């Protein structure tokens, strides 16, 4: 044992032997004392050894039977896989992303029965928040970044859990892209502080100082998205993707760059009739009545006095920079945002951008297209809808859980996600199944994502793409 000084004991014995040689043979009583001393030493050694063995056995038994504890104070954390940043190895023992993506139902059932990987704000592993640690979590396990032909701006409104937002970012981070975040003023201080630390560590990540009063009805979503867009307007990006808290990007940075090059000046969104209980049907919806244009003298009368048809889609859209720039340059955006952000109505965040884009206003990045029919958006957002059913357990969802008429995405959806042409999947809850995030990241790193669209595919589904190609090439 470490406390037994064998060298010192040997030295003492040598000293007594030398002394005996100098003084002759030891007396009988001295020999008895010496023997007793030796026996005492061996007894002490035996006790120490037995006690150490007993403690070791107790330690091993305890380690094998106890559940893993959340360690917030550890200064050194061993990370060999991405999930180790957020979970213990014991908790993630049933996570088998390859089998999930391949649709192995047995592997999925074992993972689900074991309890899934869930993040709760009161049970989190302590993340090191220095810049080196943040960068290592984001892209330390990734190969060198590839050159991108075009850069994307990700404009995201958030309100909860830093770990989820960091994991989302790690899936799509590239030094050539730009990321702007708007935070709900009701968010906890941990999220706000952590996001600002993240922003300070990387130049292409921006967190707005202003905070917003988001709610389920969609209020302040448009305002926050456009404040973020304005903040990064001078940056070198080609398309902006608007996102909300639980939106999961399912295409790689390279795929998104290629998509931007293919779209060129085209914006992508769904096309549908707005529900009349979501906007003021009695208001004056002509551009002149809305005071929509900054300089009305430059606008033809047929545009200025034509009543806008209010349109809707989803909050998530892909906007070309030329269209965004034109909106800021020519329109009174603050006024039109207020027009749509009616505090007494529900679902107000799904109409403004669509209405401005789908009514021809002579803006750059816009073409005259007949949007009177409904057209499903087959590119922007993957969603498994189950309408008119209560939140909670739901047999129609693959994950068996419904929230706000949308099936929450668990690992049961990974195979479908891996084949989808969509850019975004909604919705992912970290308190329901964080394994979906981890495995989608692995899927993207392994280049097992769904097909990227080509020009023919886009032309068949998006009339604005066909029209913009003619306009640009004419």
Automatic annotation (TrEMBL):
Membrane topology designation: Single-pass type II membrane protein
GO CC, one annotated term: membrane
Subcellular location: Membrane
Pfam families referenced in this protein's UniProt entry, alphabetically: Branch
Listed transmembrane segments: 28-50
Primary localization class, coarse: membrane
Keywords (A to Z) from UniProt: Glycoprotein, Glycosyltransferase, Membrane, Transferase, Transmembrane, Transmembrane helix
InterPro entries named in the record: Glyco_trans_14 (IPR003406)
MF terms (GO), sorted A to Z: glycosyltransferase activity
Name recorded for this polypeptide: Protein CBG24500
Annotated source species: Caenorhabditis briggsae
Biological classification of the source: Eukaryota, Metazoa, Ecdysozoa, Nematoda, Chromadorea
């Amino acid at each position: 044992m470490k406390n037994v000084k064998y060298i010192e004991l040997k030295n003492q014995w040598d000293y007594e032997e030398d002394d005996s040689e100098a003084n002759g043979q030891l007396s009988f009583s001295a020999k008895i004392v010496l023997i007793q001393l030796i026996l005492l030493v061996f007894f002490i050694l035996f006790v120490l050894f037995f006690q150490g063995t007993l403690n070791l056995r107790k330690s091993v038994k305890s380690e094998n039977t106890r559940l893993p504890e959340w360690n917030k104070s550890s200064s050194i954390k061993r990370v060999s896989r991405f999930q180790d940043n957020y979970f213990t190895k014991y908790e993630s023992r049933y996570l088998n992303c390859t089998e999930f993506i391949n649709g192995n139902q047995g592997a999925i059932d074992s993972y689900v029965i074991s309890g899934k990987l869930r993040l709760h704000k009161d049970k989190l592993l302590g993340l090191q928040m220095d810049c080196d640690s943040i960068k290592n979590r984001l892209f330390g396990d990734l190969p060198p970044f590839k050159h991108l032909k075009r850069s994307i701006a990700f404009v995201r409104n958030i309100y909860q859990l830093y770990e989820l937002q960091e994991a989302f970012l790690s899936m799509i981070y590239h030094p050539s892209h730009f990321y702007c975040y708007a935070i709900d003023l009701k968010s906890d201080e941990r999220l706000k502080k952590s996001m600002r630390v993240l922003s300070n560590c990387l130049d292409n990540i921006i967190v707005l100082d202003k905070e917003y009063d988001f709610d389920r009805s969609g209020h302040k979503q448009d305002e926050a998205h456009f404040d973020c867009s304005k903040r990064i307007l001078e940056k070198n990006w080609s398309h902006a993707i608007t996102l909300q808290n639980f939106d999961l990007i399912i295409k790689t940075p390279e795929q998104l760059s290629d998509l931007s090059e293919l779209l060129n000046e085209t914006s992508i969104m769904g096309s549908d009739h707005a529900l009349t209980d979501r906007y003021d049907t009695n208001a004056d919806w002509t551009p002149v009545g809305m005071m929509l244009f900054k300089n009305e003298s430059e606008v033809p009368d047929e545009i200025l006095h034509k009543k806008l048809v209010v349109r809707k889609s989803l909050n998530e859209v892909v906007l070309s920079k030329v269209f965004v720039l034109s909106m800021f340059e020519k329109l009174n955006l603050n006024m039109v945002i207020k027009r749509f952000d009616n505090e007494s109505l529900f679902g107000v965040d799904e109409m403004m951008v669509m209405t401005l884009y789908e009514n021809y206003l002579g803006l750059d990045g816009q073409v005259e297209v007949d949007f009177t029919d409904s057209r499903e958006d087959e590119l922007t957002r993957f969603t498994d809808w189950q309408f008119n059913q209560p939140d909670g357990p739901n047999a129609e969802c693959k994950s068996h859980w419904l929230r706000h008429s949308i099936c929450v995405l668990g690992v049961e959806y990974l195979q479908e996600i891996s084949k989808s042409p969509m850019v975004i999947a909604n919705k992912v809850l970290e308190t329901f199944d964080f394994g979906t995030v981890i495995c989608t990241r692995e899927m993207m790193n392994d280049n097992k994502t769904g097909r990227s669209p080509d020009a023919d595919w886009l032309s068949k589904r998006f009339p604005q793409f066909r029209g913009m190609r003619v306009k640009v090439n004419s």
